[in-house]
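Kindly inspect this chain:
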Amino acid sequence: VEQDGIRISSSAVRKAVLSADFALAERLLGHPFLLDFNTPDWTPSGSGLVAERNMFTQILPPPGMYPAKLRVLENREQKVRVESTDETVRLVPCENESLPAGEAIEAIQF
């Protein structure tokens, strides 16, 4: 199956995420790329949360800073910034906000 001249496959989705092309990943998936929040252990760090990169079972974008949304229980969303390094992934709340409790977060939407 092709869309916009691109073959839809898991390899194409992985390639899009690895190149931080979340718009393409969304077109291929038919919905935004979601990172499962429950897979790694998150540790409070300052005003954010941090997890070891090697604890994720899903594909991650390359190191960098990305705008994202937290999908929170009861169909709520909260804008955050994802700071990804070679070793860690950190969630940082937007200015004048705080992150919800970890158990209330379902996924990170890119």
About this structure: Residues 1-31 form one domain. The longest strand covers residues 64-72. Strands lie at 2-3, 6-7, 34-36, 43-45, 48-52, 64-72, 76-84, 88-93, 105-109. The mean pLDDT is 92.
